[in-house]
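haha ok so turns out i had the wrong file open the whole time. this is the CORRECT one, sorry everyone. sequence first:
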Amino acid sequence: MKASILIVDDEENLRKLLSRVIELEGYSVTQAPTIKDAIKLLGNNSYQVVVSDVKLPDGNGVDLAAKIKNEFPGTEIIVLTAFGTIEDGVKAIKNGAFDYLTKGDHQDKIIPLLSKATDKALLQQRVLNLESKLLNKFGFDSILGESKIIKQCIELARKVSKADANVLLLGETGTGKEVFAQAIHYESTRKSKSFVALNCSAFPKDLLESELFGHAEGAFTGALKSKKGYVEEAHEGTLFLDEIGEMNIDLQAKLLRVLETGEFYRVGESRPRKASIRFIAATNRNLEKESEAGHFRKDLFYRLSVFTISLPALRDRNEDIPVFANSFIKLFSLKTNKPEFPVSKDFIKALQQHPWKGNIRELKNVIERSVILAESEIDASILPSDFLLEEDANQFDLASAEKKHIKKIISHTDGNKTQAAKLLGIGLTTLYQKIKDYNL
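then structure:
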């Protein structure tokens, strides 16, 4: 990549001479005589390094360094100071400048310094690009939905993301609690550090303690070497504790110590260790009632619930179902290397009638199955048999029951009519007639 340099100096001859020296080394150079011109150029172009004089007609290069680092963090600044004004250079570095040079000997030293500054700027810009990609993948813009209730949740989460407070996410299984936790982390001041997720229901009590805090060598049978726990892995970052309501009450006391003091013990060690962590916890239980019943520590509940967000069930944001369906259809069409088939209205209508006890997770599974089965249009006929379509909702006569049963058997045989007829105990001709009569 050919690095771009911006030179800011009101002395035209010096500016041109310096530009020529830098261009001969293969850099792309732009010139600006004032701070106003420099800021305009920075707003419209990407520069790796700015080389600026201290004394400019409309301001000070030392102040310009602070402005550039604030508004264009991926750009490095080298300041040119007059002889005997080293304090300007020192102040510029405090304001975020990469380094300074004294005029008079700057032409001999500028190229090696530019090389170092450019390397740092390119690395910084790669980091910023990566952070931008992570935000697109895990930030709030990645959360699907246009309903009022989900937008309110996103707004609350955006506000708390910058505050570094502990967050408690409530909601049924499959409502997207981990997606929200990731978004809060990646738009927080800890975004450059680790986001670590632990499902507390996935481990028995003794093993969960080891997973959470780590263990020393020989702490228990099978502990052949020391191991870091999730708490250490999340140091200076975010630890997401999913299904926190499943954690044993004895282990809750040890977790509380981390929240209160930042200290913890590896299993089998007597020396405390330190960790600075932001905690985001999630549960589908009512922790307030659990704490009243003595199943969850009240003090831990209060520590975790500094900021609580209740995520809605999918059935309570019915208007978002088409948004999810279309997104998942695109995803699974790509994954299965199939064309993106058109979606019928009855398919969407059937999705919106379904209770979705498994919420978004269940919907995702249903869409994946539908994409796999679809041969042309994605319609309601390929949905699982437990989907009650609107046309059948208030019909409980014998014909309706027969229609539903035939559809279930055809679905069970993956569309094999001969096998379906055998299971139904009727002739193939009779089955085809019923398919025609019931418009299956």
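Residues 4-135 form a domain with the Rossmann fold fold (CATH 3.40.50.2300).
again sry for the mixup
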